[in-house]
Amino acid sequence: MPTNNKTFRVSRRDVLSYASAGVLATAGISLFGSVAKADKKMTMDMISKVTGGREAKSGRITLELPQIAENGNTVPLTVEVESPMSDADYVKSVHIYAEDNPLPQVISFHFSPASGMAKASTRMRLAKTQNVIAVAEMSDGSVFQASTEVKVTIGGCGG
Predict the structure, then answer these.
(1) How far is CA 132 from CA 12, 23, 71, 92, 116, in A?
(2) Sign (positive or negative) of CA dihedral 67, 70, 76, 77
(3) Which of 42, 71, 82, 100 has a beta carbon 3.0–4.6 Å from 130's, enabling a disulfide?
(4) DSSP β-ladder status, 68-69 and 130-138
(5) Residue 115: helix, strand or coil by DSSP?
(6) How far apart are CA 81 and CA 156, in angstroms?
(7) What pTM value is reported for the model?
(8) Lowest pLDDT segment from 3-7, 25-29, 116-120
């Protein structure tokens, strides 16, 4: 039986180029993978977990956002909840949601009577025109909710 003893020589340069091609292919697959997308139902489910099934009332929350955000990468937000902030009556927390962002829960602020007032400011990203929702949990177990629409001209979450 004849034997075919062919030897293939692979240089170190060839090995490195094959390895780098594999790394680039793997990175490319991860870059073009599907992006998680929230929807209104997902946002409402998250809010329902916070409220524990309690009916959210309107009022007491002032939500300051621009009506039109030129750039969704940095949208200013100020939220304030009317409360005496006493030991008997205070705001425990305020949760902010952006219902059409890939991840709708934006931030949660926690307060105590020592806070003096329930007011906080930050900046957030918005993927596109959507409602921003604030949910406030009070020390007596009541829940308040407010929302406002922000029109976004250039999305900040890859939109």
Answers:
(1) 55, 40, 15, 20, 25
(2) positive
(3) 100
(4) unpaired
(5) helix
(6) 27
(7) 0.73
(8) 25-29
- Domains plus CATH for the chain? 40-152 (2.60.40.2470)
**What are the structure tokens assigned to 149, written together?**
């629409």
Q: Looking at this protein, which amino acid is placed at residue 94?
A: V
- In degrees, to the nearest 5, what angle opens at C-alpha 55 toward C-alphas 86 and 60? 40
Residue with tokens 């949990």: 137
Residues in the chain: 159
> Are 144 and 135 in contact, with CB atoms under 8 Å apart?
yes
Six token digits for residue 34: 């599907």
Nearest to 94 by CA among 127, 130, 133: 133
pLDDT tens digits along 108-145 = 999 999 999 999 999 999 989 999 999 999 999 999 99
